[in-house]
Design goal:
Elements: E1 5-8, H1 14-25, E2 31-33, H2 48-53, E3 61-64, E4 70-72, H3 74-85, H4 95-108, H5 114-124, H6 132-153, H7 167-176, H8 193-202, H9 208-211, H10 213-218, H11 228-250
This protein binds glutathione.
The site of glutathione has 14 residues, from helix 1 and helix 3.
């Protein structure tokens, strides 16, 4: 499998960024097909054609053009790719280490992932009027998860699982990293020195900047909600930069 793999999604989506980062990091060619999350129009993740292949209607989803194999859920996709291509550096074969990576990937969903729901979405989509209680609960989950990462996961090692990068870091970073002042600027990391050190290390990982183009383009959203046009353009720019990387991989 090379560019016979289609990745459906947009670079503005956190879990899509994690999958794209893994593929670029491993210099594995693929085709990126833009799919609008939540839209039931043509080209949207809730359009009947997309739902027929991917019943959860979410991005990222992947398809192997040759075998017809399809899969949704970023963590399942990342583990599948690591298993298929023996990327044991990022998803260690050692049972205990792999279990720790899996442990983070499971934790992520109703904890760290709440950052997008409780901190980013309400700034980007002010029109959705999220209930105050809901936002408070999401933000409390994020604070609790960040404390566990600060005092536990990152207190004794450079990365989340040991001193080497794994897919747990990529998945965590696309969610936590987006909150930094250089991107959306919606979280104060002052109380978390280990997380700050890790954020800095993660920013040095190959393709960090390319993968985060759409966020650099979007800029600070802490005060003013970005216009829809700005979000669309940020996505387009992110897509373009990834295409450029794929082209240079072929050369
Ligand atoms: N647990 C999923 C979450 C995927 C997800 O929430 N994707 C969003 C975009 S960031 C989406 O597709 N939303 C559209 C919808 O739910 O209708 C994963 O890790 O892949």
């Amino acid at each position: 499998m090379s560019d016979q793999l289609i990745i459906y999604g947009v670079p503005f989506s956190q879990p899509v960024r994690a999958v794209l980062w893994l593929m670029l990091y491993k210099q594995k060619p693929f085709e990126l097909a833009m799919v609008n999350p939540g839209s039931s129009s043509e080209g949207g993740s809730r359009h009947p054609d997309f739902l027929a292949k991917f019943p959860t209607g979410t991005i990222p989803s992947i398809e192997d053009k040759e075998t017809g194999f399809v899969l949704s859920e970023s963590h399942a996709i990342m583990c599948y790719l690591c298993n298929k291509f023996d990327w044991d550096d990022l998803y260690p074969k050692n049972h205990e280490q792999r279990a720790k990576v899996d442990s983070y990937l499971h934790l992520h969903h109703r904890n760290v992932r709440e950052a997008s729901i409780g901190l980013v979405a309400p700034k980007v989509r002010k029109d959705l009027n999220f209930p105050e209680d809901f936002l408070r609960m999401s933000q409390a989950s994020v604070d609790k998860a960040f404390k566990a990462i600060e005092d536990g996961w990152l207190s004794k090692s450079r990365f989340l699982v040991g001193d080497e990068l794994t897919i747990a870091d990529m998945s965590a970073y696309v969610e936590i990293g987006q909150l930094q002042s250089k991107f959306t600027n919606v979280y104060d990391f002052e109380a978390f020195p280990n997380i700050r050190r890790w954020l800095e290390d993660m920013s040095q990982v190959t393709y960090h900047d390319e993968i985060h183009t759409s966020l650099f383009e979007l800029g600070d959203i802490s005060i003013e909600a970005p216009a829809m046009e700005k979000i669309i353009n940020a996505n387009k720019k992110g897509f373009l930069v990834i295409q450029q990387q794929l082209t240079s991989m072929e050369e």
